[in-house]
Every structure is written in C-alpha cells, then in structure tokens.
C-alpha cells in the first residue's frame, strides 16, 4: 500500500479519535512538536503514556482490592494518571479521572470501584486506537525508508 494511502488511513483514524472525544487539542500540540528531526516523537510519547498508565491501573486495582482503602494513595495515582492523560490529550481518560478523584475525596469505595472501571474502559478503548495508529506510522516509516534505498 502506498505511503499516501497509509497516511490517509492514519489521518482518518486520528480524526475519528477526535470525533469520538478520545483526544483533545493537546494531542494536536504533540503532533506539531514532531518534525523531520524527531519523526518518532508522538509514537514515543504515546508508548510512554501507555506504559505508565498500565502501571498506574495495576496499582489502583491492587489498592481498591484492599479491605481498607488508602484514599490518599488512590488519589495520588489518579492525579498522576490525570496529568499523563492531559499531557497526551487523552480527553475521556482525563474526564474519568476527574470523576474518580471526586469519589476519592468522599472516601466512597463503591464510587471509586465504578470510576476505576470507567477509567479502565476509556483507557483500553484509547490504547486500542493508539496501537493501530502506531502500526500505521510504523508501516509508513518502513515504506518511506524502502523508497529511499
């Protein structure tokens, strides 16, 4: 498949992510930071975001499984995830984290468990689209490298 067709597919995917509310304008800011000297910048940031999010979600799941929940620890992790989400433009994850933090402030375990499930759902939805995006970018890069040789 030609690089042009792959780029169109990639642009369509990213546009659909904006339309679904998965991404906000912060992601556009990230894209603008990528140029010829840093072709893998967005992919690197997205990969780091996903790795960090996986770690945080694992910790949050462990904390919420405790009989006595340490809401200050939960809140600290949710705050960290909210910040990471904001920095990559993961709008739905960020919004879900805001709701989660409200339940933490209320020491509401049931609300926190529900909120954690919403955060996970939004994150996994986004991660799936990010994985497709990274595969397309990788294929475009491989095609362009092949053309140069």
TrEMBL record:
One of its GO terms (molecular function) is protein histidine kinase binding. InterPro entries: AHP1-5/YPD1, HPT_dom_sf, Sig_transdc_His_kin_Hpt_dom. It is found in: Cytoplasm, Cytosol; Nucleus. Gene3D superfamilies: HPT domain. Residues 38-143 form the HPt domain. This is Histidine-containing phosphotransfer protein. GO terms for biological process: cytokinin-activated signaling pathway; phosphorelay signal transduction system; positive regulation of cytokinin-activated signaling pathway. Pfam families: Hpt. Keywords: Cytokinin signaling pathway, Cytoplasm, Nucleus, Phosphoprotein, Two-component regulatory system. The gene is LOC105061387. The keyword Nucleus applies. Functions as a two-component phosphorelay mediators between cytokinin sensor histidine kinases and response regulators (B-type ARRs). Plays an important role in propagating cytokinin signal transduction through the multistep His-to-Asp phosphorelay. Functions as a positive regulator of the cytokinin signaling pathway. May play a regulatory role in salt and drought tolerance during plant development. PANTHER family: HISTIDINE-CONTAINING PHOSPHOTRANSFER PROTEIN 2, PHOSPHORELAY INTERMEDIATE PROTEIN YPD1. It comes from Elaeis guineensis var. tenera. The modification Phosphohistidine is found at residue 79.
């Amino acid at each position: 498949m030609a690089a042009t067709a792959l780029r169109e597919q990639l642009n369509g995917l990213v546009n659909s992510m904006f339309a679904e509310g998965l991404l906000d304008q912060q992601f556009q800011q990230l894209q603008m930071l990528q140029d010829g000297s840093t072709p893998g910048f967005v992919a690197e940031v997205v990969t780091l975001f996903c790795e960090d999010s996986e770690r945080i979600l694992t910790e949050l799941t462990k904390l919420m499984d405790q009989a006595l929940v340490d809401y200050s620890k939960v809140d600290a992790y949710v705050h960290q995830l909210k910040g990471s989400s904001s920095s990559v433009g993961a709008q739905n994850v960020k919004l879900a984290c805001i709701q989660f933090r409200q339940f933490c402030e209320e020491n509401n375990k049931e609300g926190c468990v529900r909120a954690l499930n919403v955060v996970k759902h939004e994150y996994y939805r986004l991660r799936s689209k990010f994985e497709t995006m990274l595969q397309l970018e990788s294929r475009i890069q491989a095609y362009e490298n092949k053309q140069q040789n």
